[in-house]
Amino acid sequence: MRFRLTPRETSFYDMFAASADNIVTGSKLLMELLGADSSARAEIAERMRAAEHAGDDATHAIFHQLNSSFITPFDREDIYNLASCLDDIMDFMEEAVDLVVLYQVEELPKGVEQQIEVLARAAELTAEAMPNLRTMDNLTEYWIEVNRLENQADQIHRKLLAQLFNGKYDAIEVLKLKQIVDVLEEAADAFEHVANTVETIAVKES
C-alpha cells in the first residue's frame, strides 16, 4: 500500500460497511420471501422497501461526505462508483420482491431459490470485505469468489429461462416470471460490479 503523508477521511470505511450490512438484511428478506405464502409477502415487501430506503440514505451520506471532504481514502471516482454499485444491489433486490407482490405470483419457478442463495452468499462476502478496505488486505479471494458466484448465477438464470419457455406456463405468466428472474440476475451482476470496483481500488493502492 502506498505511504501517505496526508491524513485521510476514514468515515467512508464505516459507511461502506453499513451499506453492505444493509444488503445482507435485504438478502435475508429475499430468503424469507421464498418460504412465505402470498398473504405474508406484502409485509416482507414493506420491510424490504424500508431496507432499500436505508440503503438510499447510506448512499446519500457517502456522496455528501465525498462532496465535503478535501482528502479521501482513495480516488473520488472509485468512491462514487462503489457507493453507486452497492446502491444498485439493494434497488434490484427490492424491485424483485415488489414485482412478486404486484404480479401476485402464486409460485416462483424452481431454481429461483438457487438464484437467491447465490445473492445471499455474495451479500455475506461483500459485508465481510468492506472493512478490509482500510488495509486492502485479504480482498483477492473476495473478488475471485464473487466473480465465480456471478458465473454460477448466469448458469442458473439460463436454466430458468429455458424452464419458462418450455411451454408449461402461459404467455402472461412467462412475462411476469421472466422479469423477476431477470432482475435477480441484475442483482448478481451488481455484486460483480462491486467486486470489480474493489479490485480496481486495491490495484491502485498497491
Automatic annotation (TrEMBL):
Coiled coil: none annotated. Pfam families: PhoU_div. InterPro entries: PhoU-like_sf (IPR038078), Put_Phosphate_transp_reg (IPR018445), UPF0111_domain (IPR052912). SUPFAM superfamilies: PhoU-like (SSF109755). Belongs to the UPF0111 family. This is DUF47 family protein. The lineage of its organism: Bacteria, Bacillati, Actinomycetota, Actinomycetes, Kitasatosporales.
